[in-house]
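User: Can you help me understand a structure? I only have the sequence.
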Amino acid sequence: MNTDTDLLWSPGRRELEDSNVACFMAWLDEERGLRFPDYAALWRWSATDLPGFWSAVWEFYGLDAVTGYDEVLADASMPGAVWFPGARLNFAERCLAAATDARPALVAVAEGGEPAEISWPELRRRVTDVAAALRRMGVGPGDRVAGYLPNLPETVVALLATAAVGAVWTVCSPDFGTPSVLARLRQAEPVVLVAADGYRHGGRTHDRRATVAELAEGLPTLRHVLAVDHLFPPTAQPWSAREDLTQHTWSRLPSAEAPLDFADVPFDHPLWILWSSGTTGVPKGIVQGHGGIVTELLKALGLGADLRPDDRYLFLTSTSWMVWNFLVAGLLHGSTVVLYDGSPTFPDVNGAWRAAERTGATMVGVGAAYLTAVEKSGTRPTAEYDLGRLRGILQTGSSLPPSTWRWVHEEFADGVRLQSICGGTDICSVLAGGSALLPVRAGRIQAPALGVALASWDPDGNALTSRQGELVVTAPLPSMPLYFVGDPDRTRYRAAYFDTYPGIWRHGDWITIDPDLSVTVSGRSDSTLNRMGVRMGSADIYAVVEQLPEVADSLVLGVEQPDGGYFMPLFVVPAEGAVLDEALRGRITAALRSALSPRHVPDVILPVPAVPRTLTGKKLEVPVKRVLQGAPPAEVAAEGAVTHPGMLTWFAEFARGRAAVTPGA
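Assistant: Let's start by predicting it. Here is the structure, written out as tokens:
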């Protein structure tokens, strides 16, 4: 239940009259005679009249001047919805269409380096040159181009050049281990690999040329390597010994002889492949289309995040996380995209704020764990850095403790709005997030995103209000996957989202939607805690435990036992200088009992050196649970796909030790 003490921010006159979504509502009134008194009414219309809403987005953002279409939604089936048949548009063309001399297209900054601006004409020139090079390599529509690249301007250029020629892009960050990269790129079957010679992170330089040679050996479809000389001078010596490979040097590509020519592709032409985490099996290659991404991210970043052309948009991310794609899509709005290559905690926890100050960022995106770490550090970013241009913080990756919500709004200026967003790789967008028209309350996402028929369902498919249920989407979205790689009959696709409720997208999260439309995410539904028949979200426990200054991180699991029993351990990483003794165990227990309920008190509270996570920051709840149930660590997570991989062996040894003293465990 919302209270006044939860209220952190309220929209002012600018938001109510001049935000993107307010302008959209005024446009609907003027152009279509549609009047909505508030966001709730607008959302209900957007989630039920899909042709009306999406055609309005299309016209509001000027796509009607680019291409026509036969109808908005020819088939609303899930999976298999058919959007905008007859329309033809190219993602790269739309990204470059907003060019202006008034501000740069990109600002790039690395650890310890100075920001470098790239103008819109220069960006177009670079895309033109690389697209011409790809065409000389024989790359055309439908071919696959892979990147092994950090967050550089070259990565953005490679994506746009690939899209411009109608090929399909995919990328892995060079901090991924070789087996993890091959588990993805082998499925993609690329003909070209665009690879950096190395990357910087945490003050260290990592040479990746030998790794690129390993990747080339493991990718039999590869014919060309485009070597990005990022850290080291280019050499004539190829990185790979394969004689059937041709290596090209990025900095030595010739200038294109003709203007940039964009492949004329249909709405549902594949644009890129994003990858699932690979922590529960072979990574799923999620294919999304040009048209779906253009329309969805015009809507999500414009009408949701309120991104504007004069914004400088920074998201702290690696290229393997979908928010990198979400960042690049800022170009669709004419915004300046800020690329940070490095660790957000280098040389200290305020690395991200230092980058924001140096680049003049107005919109900053970060993971939840980063904000919590800054809060716990006791530092004052606004006292140390000039963040006066900042007007919005986007937070994603996992749920944010209420104390961190309050810290953000106490630390930053009154005009800075914290937007927590929930969505993911599956749609490369937002299911529930922010709106400039709604208040911000601690611990709550503001509302379902426009156009998203979001609901919370019980196991029988009944909609719930103010009660926790499965996050479902009951109507299609333009950016839902076209298909999975290597899944011609959509067997894996259906199993991923549609097995529980046929024809209804089940996202895999527990959520609660209140009458005011605010949304609370309580963790993954496939790692649900279930004690005595009561389902509980792990995020609720983390929000309590990780507020304690003695706790740096934690992991709670609900493990069904072979004898029918249920084991609920809480693993805690003590903060520096702290010890998990009986006194701290008592404080944790008391806090959980007081803030939540006696059912939330774990069976045991144990110290661990670290909590393993995916490389995008999600805790490995399901894989560790499987290890505690006896699965070998190698079966639950791909090598190189997780942080602290040795912890999986630690948990396996813990499980064996427990089984030895607890029969049936």
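Now, to help you interpret it: The chain has a mean pLDDT of 92. The first strand starts at residue 7 and ends at 9. Let me know which part you'd like to focus on.
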